[in-house]
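User: Structure tokens for this complex, please. No commentary.
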Amino acid sequence: MGTIEVTKLTKRYGDHNAVDGLDLSIEDGQFITLLGPSGCGKTTTLRMLAGFIRPDEGTITVDGCELSSPARVVPPEERGMGMVFQNYALWPHKTVYHNVAYGLRMQRPRLARKEIRARVGAMLEVVSLPGFEDRFPGQLSGGQQQRVALARSLVTEPSILLLDEPLSNLDAKLRDRMREEVQEIQRRTDITFVYVTHDQGEAMSMSDRIAVMSSGRLEQFAAPRQVYHRPANVAVADFMGLVNLLQGRVVSVDRPAAAVEVVLAFGTRLRLGLTDGTTVFVGDDVTVAIRPENVTVRRSADAGEALVADVTHTTMLGHLCYYVLDLAGTTLRVQTASDVELDRGDRVSVDIDERHASVFPAEVDAESAIEEERV
Amino acid sequence: MRQGSLVLAAAACLIAGCGGQGSTSDSSTSIDDVTDQASLDKLVEAAKEEGQVVWYTSVPSERADEIAKMFTAEYDIEVVVQRSGGEDLLQKFLLEEEAGRVQNDVLTLSDPAAFISLKQDDVLTCFVPRNFDSVLEYARDDDGCWIATRMNAYVIAYNTKEVTDPPTGFDDLLDPKFAGDLAYINPSFSSGSLIVTAGLANDKGWEWFEQLAESKPFVVKGNNDTMQTVVTGERGIATFVNSTYVSEAKAEGQPVEWVFPEDGIYLIPAPSAVIAEAPHPAAGKLLADFLLTDEVQQVMVDDGNYAAMEDFPAPEGQPEIDEMKRLEVDYDKLAGESKDVRDQFSSTVESAS
Amino acid sequence: MTTLPQQAAGSPRRGRWGSAVSARLVLGGAALILLVLVVYPLFWLVLGSFGGTDELTVSNYLRVVREPDLYRALLNTLLIATGASVISLCAGVPIAWFISRTNIPGKEALRTATSVSFMIPGFLSAIAYVVLMAPNTGWLNELVERMFGLDQGPFNIYSLLGITAVTSFGSVAFVVYLATAALDSVDSGLEQSAQILGASRWKVIMGITWPLVTPALLASTLLVFVHSLALFGSHAILGLPVQIYTLPTRIYSLFAFPPDYGAATALSMVLVLLTIGVLYLQRRLLKRRSYVTTEGKAGFQAQVDLGRYRWPAFLACHGFFAFAAYLPVLVLVLASLTKSRGLGFGWDNLTWANYRYVMFEYSLTQRATVNTLILAVSAATAGIVLGALVAYINLRLKVRGAKVLDYLSTIPLGLPGVVLAVGLVLAWIRLPIAIYATMWILLIAYLTRFIPLAVRSADSALRQIDPSLEEASRISGGSWLRSIVEITLPLMKGGMVAGWSLIFVQVIGELAATILLFSVGNETVAVAIYQRSEEGHLEEVSALSVLVLLATAVVLGLARRLTGASVTRW
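Assistant:
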């Protein structure tokens, strides 16, 4: 069992709210990712889940038992959780065997030595490190250390596993492999995983649901697909990957269909669906978010096409190409398959896929606020 | 069972330190002075009941141990000897006294001025021992609050390899030919030097020190450092030093010789006193009395010190007291102005450097 | 693999009080002990500086600041402390690096030399240097005079430079010990990753290695500086004869009869302020960055091949130790074998009699040896445990007032021994329980005096251990106490053994406070040495000192071997 209920969780450092009234409910056996730029409060949240930090307000309840509140925090060792640290936190003075066996040795009533040995052995099989028992962490590669850290946190069979950017120290190739292994382990053990990362690719590829955070607040909590395609706001849209944020004005509203018609700065009219909870009125300034892959370009100087732009920058990524276009003074980022070959200075026609564009009420300086957040 | 409880009772008695009968206080308070055999017997009895005496002394440790053994052999009373440098010991005693936790019964130092201050502060017990009248009269307090145990003579010393034409007196020391060759003990760190410095300032005036400063004396911390400096030849001449240190160096075969200055000798009493709040008052008095016996005085003379009692010969190689010109120091005056003397010395000597 | 029901997350009943209470008890207890050890005697000193219990006045301070001598003494003190810090750093850092990171020949010899340089008590080292470098009769001067036909040798130990050098010889070990412990715990993977990125070896050292050991270097510099502020023995022997006064020698002269406690304690407060100021500076410098290095993804230790510089480096290190350790020891050994120094060298002046005397005839030797061993081992052990806990409070707990503890735990180092001893007497003599005039007062004195060494060593060791290592233990089910014992303390081992050794050695040589606090039956070796030297028996003093040095070296070697500190696998 590993149902987590987080209610109005708040943590302040001085007059800065690291976590600000967070509500989150996590079902048993799910793989949840806390995603956001550094400083968004995701690690603080995770450390409150682990019991390392006392909340200033709010509660954390697991399977109906209140574990954290401003008045009382059940210490980490009594929560029965597991945790994988960003730096692995392997004990350099203990062998792999003793690192992994530690949690079992701590259990009360005491486990028989035989049982400990058997379970450590089995666990090392799971992480594909049999025969490494007597090595010291210093003698292992980064990926092997990562696996030992996983083994150590899983061997006690916790109902909840907390992972704090566990893959960020690995190189790209290893990271991809470990990603799959972590997912595989989660599927096999059915443990609730709470995973912290700032890498939206990692989050989308592994999670059942993603909690996007910024400035200590929960921006959106939804399945990866929804977070990506139907971001709750500009901040989420921006954080989930490269996005064009275009300024426009509402010219008509179709409430029954939850759709609006927007005129962009460069004159194009788009008919766009409204995200839940977004209300706009005719005449409002809005921001339209369009992902680069939802813009199609064709090399064509065909007169009469609605939009024509100039290619100002090209980036070839192998399977994909990125282009930066200048559309009557507005910068537009575009992604195409690599077989579409364009060069700097080419004139192209542009088509925006209305189905995947989102519209948000314009926020003053929304973009610069996000930029600051990232710094 | 009965036997067991008896043993227990005995143990409890031991722990509590209870004696055969009665307490020790009434007998000790009644003994002020030892004038005859009867009062001595009474003192011995009281002291034995106390069973122990604690002696803070700056007498060299071998000598102190020897005297302690003699005392124990005579009276069968244990002597706890705390031997240390005079300045350290005095400081320790003052702190204990200030806190109201006096640990020792007898204090033996070589600084009469300090004892005059201590007497004024009512820290000392006045006590007249058997041989009080035989003590040199300038080496005792009239009320018996402190009485010298030995006399320290301060002499000029020089290295015979380095100096062929030694100085004869204090004025001779200022001769430019000795410039850069003098060692002087710092009066800020040595009570003996403080007294001699005060005496010289009185007898010769501070002008003498101004001239001394011209020859850039090497200002060391104590008697021992002075002797080391002279023995090694780093400096050829000790302006003054306790004669016992010289006699010991000579006995070791070191190339040193002393000069008893023609101006006279500073002969400084090194007093002992019984402490007012002594934990073993009777034994303390008994030890103070014992320090002024012929046996102990002879130990002092053998060690190179002058005895505190009359009719003892001078230590080997040193002039008899009646043959020397003894230079007086006004200890009462010094007791009040020791800081001024130190400050004057350091400003005079430092100003030249 | 399914979850075990009894291990389910929400079962907080088990040992609900255990962890929190033990943490509070242990840490609160440590904080309380520190307060009692330091603040209680300090309170009496501060009170004394303001005129004592009767009426409060600032007249002592006014008297002190009006004294023009104060400023010269202050300047001298600062010059000596700064100079000693610079010399110790310049010599100690390369030596530590050679020992920890290179294939320099004879590392054990270098470690031993470091310990020896530290083991020679200041006043003995000063005496040895008088023998070597007194302007007229110093052996080295005579050697140079004879070699070059000069009238006057070039060395004069009675000078600011001489005092500074001798001071630094006694404190270079602070740097070597702490820097070696830190370097041993730096993951050389960090260095190598920088090397792979194309940085030259020199750039790696300057850019990666040194920044990582900065806390240890700052800590040791602070120790050297503050330690030098309060030294008395060597400064008195080398400075006073030529009127070079320092604050400690000025303060000592105020204790002469009749003692001026008010002015002495007021003057001591200058040293307290200096200590606080230096610590504040260190804290400011450390604040700029986080220096955690043992993160638990520990790599390994690679050794730098010095190549053709192996032997030059060897010579340079031992050249330094020739002055810091070998020559003073040589003087002591020679003096211990001579009948009398004034008689010069020759077969007829050689004797074993000094050793025979101090071993079998000198009544104090045996008792003092036993006492010293008991005191040094217990003070070092209790001190380092207390120091580790105080460092833990300061670094790991976000508690108000933790910083105050940190400052308090450093102040005793800046107080001259006699001042601290006076504070201790005033503080402890009044208690109804028998502490004064027992071994306990000495133990308390040593703990108080040397707790700064423990706290600073533990602090720099703890700074290099990532908190996540302990958190990993907690979340694995280990209680707080268990985590400390199994994880944090073993990882601090290098720094802890270094701190233990520092205290152990300092206790053996401690004289300034001991001389006021010892009583019959609990004399220490330092007292025994001092008494003989005070009575002028330098040859016997040398013999006793040589024996003490040997014994200390054996104990330190055993301590290292037993804890395996020098062969720790990271």
